[in-house]
Amino acid sequence: MFPRFADSAAPSRPLFVVQEADLAAWRASRPPTEAAWLEATGFAAGLGELQLLPGPDGAVAGAVAGLGAAPARARGRFHLASVAARLPEGVWHLDTALAGADLESEALGLLLSAYRFDRYRPQAAQRASFKAPEGVDVARIEAMAAGEVLTRDLINTPASDMGPEALEEAVIGLAARHAAEANVIRGDELLAQNFPMIHAVGRAAAEAPRLLELRWGEAGPRLTLVGKGVCFDTGGLDIKPSSSMGLMKKDMGGAATVLGLASMIMTLKLPLRLRVLIPAVENSIAGNAMRPQDILTARNGLTVEINNTDAEGRLVLADALAHAAEEETDCLISMATLTGAARVAVGPDIAPFYTDDEAVAAALSGAGAAMADPVWRMPFHAPYEAMIEPGIADLDNAPKGGFAGSITAALFLRRFVGEARYTHFDIYGWQPSDAPARPKGGVGQGARTILAALPEVLGL
């Protein structure tokens, strides 16, 4: 069930939103009994502070939430979501001076505060629901929330129920909901149709590897999204230690995120032609698993030396990107939970991206700030190209030395996109601990930023 705003005609109580600097003036504007109550209870409008307001009959007539001061707000996002779970049951509406991007962000946070992953265990529902604040684009916010919920549900589902076959079903289901076209290339047919690296990575798993494709839209600029769909990653023969394998159900976070973004685009009926490609595999161990120092020939003819079977994501993406680049596109974007190096560089909360296009970079950077979806540009640093050239083959999938791991992975991918206008996101796809509107677990990164940047990037 995707979160939606409450019926605008429903009876509701006000949730006043007050910054610390405005508290005195706002309190003076309230009825004397209410002002006295707020002073007696010590309400100071601190960030996340909540005080219920009694009515003449003793029932809850409303509530006031504190927004603190700007420095405190800068340390987080979706601040009103932190009070949503503490409100009494019923419908609420915001009474606030917030406007523009700030108001839209808080409205989205209120919707996402209701998210629960309850597939395996019932979860207590949030008692409060909210009307859409005046002045926001309701359809857009609900579409973003629905796309984010899809992404979270896909990532949170363990590999026992979210292998390549289930990911295929998710793509087909999304296509059916939006009258889109879905196509699947599966198993040995990947070899017949020249996707050798997707096949090599996934051939040792119980479920066959596959390339999933979704197409939607008949007119407008062309947007191609490619998402890494490694449904579980053991590391292959270069097996991960258990401490590193524990979160590998999220290794299809790139696929989950592009599907969430595709959901937003199709729900909003943006005037473009959308193509989504997802190489869906499980990186497992068996007698037919790829081996260290094997050399594979990619779809575009480049040879790749496998110096670590745990650097498999870039292999499946390479074939998918080469396939994407064979068809005209105005913008090609890949998203992947690709490297631990990206987490070392920017931590779990920021999605680094790579592009050679200055206009795309500016659009994404501006949109990330406006959408409470932080991103950071990283360089396609050409002097590091030599690090991905092993000598015995055209490319090395796991350069030695440990330096610049996210950059070298991005440079590797860039070798497969030809002349396409290309951007790569190296995301984490996981919220390590509970935060407002972002419970611990799977999370989308970069999708809202891309959605907001599309009008500028594609001239919509």
TrEMBL record:
Domain Cytosol aminopeptidase: 308-315
Gene Ontology cellular component terms for the protein in this record: cytoplasm
Annotated GO biological process: proteolysis
GO molecular function: manganese ion binding; metalloaminopeptidase activity
Keyword Ribosomal protein included in the entry's annotation: no
Keywords: Aminopeptidase, Hydrolase, Manganese, Protease
Keyword Hydrolase: yes
SUPFAM superfamilies: Zn-dependent exopeptidases
InterPro entries: Leucine_aapep/pepB, Macro_dom-like, Peptidase_M17_C, Peptidase_M17_N_1
PANTHER family: LEUCINE AMINOPEPTIDASE-RELATED, PEPTIDASE B
Protein family according to the UniProt entry: Belongs to the peptidase M17 family.
Protein name: Leucyl aminopeptidase
Natural source organism: Rhodovulum kholense
